[in-house]
Structure formats: C-alpha cells, structure tokens
Amino acid sequence: MTYSYNTVGTCAQKIIIDIDENEIIKDVQFLGGCNGNLKGIGKLVCGLKINDVIDKLEGIKCGFKPTSCPDQLAQALKEVKENF
Description:
This protein is an alpha+beta fold. The chain is 40% helix and 25% strand.
C-alpha cells in the first residue's frame, strides 16, 4: 500500500510511504525539506513496524515549531493505521 501525506508546518511538503500487509515500512520519501537528513530518516525507518516508528518519532519538534518532519511522519503513519 502506498500512502501520500501532505505535511503541515514543515519544510517538507509531502511524505510518500510504502507499507506491506504486515504493517512494515518498505519505503519513505519526503518531498522538499532537508534532502540528506530526510533520506536518512527514510532509510532508518525501512523494515520497522508502523507502531515502533510512531513511538520513536511522535512529538519531536524542529526549533520553535510545534512539529517536525519526523513528527509529521509519525502523524502520517497514524493516519495509515486508521485506514489499514
């Protein structure tokens, strides 16, 4: 299943996530934002279960912003869980 999420409050505008039937993340791509850092986050979460990534990334802030790209990934994954 491929899921597209429009971010809110971050430099990245969109996150595209590919997840298998066992809720394992297969691929993550961020559109916009800090290219190298976001590619790294995408690689680090591949092979992990949705819930594990949500637990690790939810609530991370970027400077004075109330969210961050990792937090937005967690929010996207929460939406994926609702629609799984």
